[in-house]
């Protein structure tokens, strides 16, 4: 089960620099000209989680295996992308395939790095990208709605429910609001997901600031904070330049000393990954034993058999029960045996909704 976030924005805002820092590779070429990223680059990065180290210590695990999140570096968008300008068609096709959007906004001045619009204004840039995505969704939905109306006249009952959601989305888009802003029932939301609308995807704003503002942000990033609050989403302030420097350091002690000198407790990378995790509404459960301690990613609200299936399809098919210990109990009791002896290990069945931090052992029979 993979989850991915597409890194998007106008050209020269720091997307590829951030991607390189996130993946600690040179897969994406960071250069001072538009469209330096021609093909989407995909990088898998470990999700930082101190709980995994603590669990491994109590379980005396020989190996630690974190859970991962995928980031996709997508070519820069320009005005007119919805009509095919620049690399518009490719951009829209690539972004349609991701689960969530990491929208990088330039919040720093620099005479050395040109801006495609000629000046720095993150709100204008956010509006430019959002407008192109809405125009693309409008074009797609209008064509689909016409087809659904024809099916409905032909007696297709499913088309009625689809058409109702399409009309809600069209009204929102025509009013200048993205599809994710619509209030829907669970059933309607399921229908909307099937449409793969660009503006239905959750968005995280990443403010790329100058090095001196990495710890506190600046006036431009605070404008983005206000926008995000109004939309019910989050912002993360980073300095892509700092992240690139940190990625070049091999020793953890060197990284921590470098960050401390800048007034930072952790990398922007770690904050972006965790925010992306929240954006996708994901949780982590753990398995632990002498061989390895491992973190696993599932959607919030999944039941025990589906979580077992994240490990192996046989586990889900032959699910019997899940021996479950809450993370705090696992630590307080000194591990699995202590939790058993203290009565903190629970036997959970097929209807159990997995909680973030659960340490689980699945019993199954195929």
What do you see in this structure?
There is one protein chain. The protein has 366 residues and is α/β, with parallel strands linked by helices. 42% of the residues lie in helices and 19% in strands. The strands form three sheets. It has a six-stranded mixed β-sheet with strand order 2-4-1-5-6-7, sandwiched between helices. A three-stranded mixed β-sheet has the order 3-9-8, sandwiched between helices. Strands 11-10-12 form a three-stranded antiparallel β-sheet. The longest helix has 32 residues, at 122-153. The model is unreliable at 25-38 (pLDDT under 50).
Largest sheet: 6 strands, mixed
Sequence of strands across the biggest β-sheet: 2-4-1-5-6-7
Number of helices: 14
The chain-level mean pLDDT equals 86
- Beta-strand content bin: 15-25%
Which segments are poorly predicted (pLDDT under 50) over 5 or more consecutive residues?
A: 25-38
């Amino acid at each position: 089960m993979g989850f991915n976030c597409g890194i998007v924005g106008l050209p020269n805002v720091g997307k590829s620099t951030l991607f390189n820092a996130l993946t600690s590779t040179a897969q994406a070429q960071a250069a001072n000209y538009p469209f330096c990223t021609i093909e989407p680059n995909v990088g898998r990065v470990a999700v930082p989680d101190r709980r995994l180290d603590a669990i491994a210590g109590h379980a005396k695990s020989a190996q630690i295996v974190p859970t991962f999140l995928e980031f996709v570096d997508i070519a820069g968008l320009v005005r007119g992308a919805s009509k095919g300008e620049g690399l518009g068609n490719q951009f829209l096709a690539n972004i349609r395939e991701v689960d969530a959007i990491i929208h990088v906004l330039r919040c720093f001045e620099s005479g050395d790095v040109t801006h495609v619009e000629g000046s720095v204004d993150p709100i204008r840039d956010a509006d430019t990208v959002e407008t192109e995505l809405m125009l693309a969704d409008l074009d797609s939905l209008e064509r689909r709605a016409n087809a659904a109306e024809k099916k409905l006249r032909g007696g297709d009952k499913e088309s009625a429910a689809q058409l109702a959601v399409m009309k809600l989305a069209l009204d929102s888009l025509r009013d200048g609001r993205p599809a994710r802003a619509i209030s829907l029932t669970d059933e309607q939301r399921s229908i909307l997901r099937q449409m793969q609308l660009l503006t239905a995807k959750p968005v995280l704003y990443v403010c790329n600031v100058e090095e001196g503002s990495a710890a506190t942000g600046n006036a431009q990033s605070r404008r983005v904070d206000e926008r995000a609050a109004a939309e019910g989403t989050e912002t993360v302030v980073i300095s892509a330049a700092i992240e690139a420097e940190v990625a070049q350091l091999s020793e953890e002690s060197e990284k921590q000393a470098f960050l401390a000198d800048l007034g930072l407790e952790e990398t922007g990378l770690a904050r972006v990954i965790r925010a992306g995790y929240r954006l996708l509404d994901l949780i982590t459960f753990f398995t632990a034993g002498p061989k390895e301690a491992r973190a696993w990613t599932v959607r919030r609200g999944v039941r025990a058999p589906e979580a077992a299936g994240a490990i192996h399809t046989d586990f889900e098919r032959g699910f019997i029960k899940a021996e479950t210990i809450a993370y705090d109990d696992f630590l307080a009791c000194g591990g699995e045996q202590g939790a058993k002896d203290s009565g903190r290990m629970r036997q959970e069945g097929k209807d159990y909704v997995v909680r973030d931090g659960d340490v689980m052992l699945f019993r199954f029979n195929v």
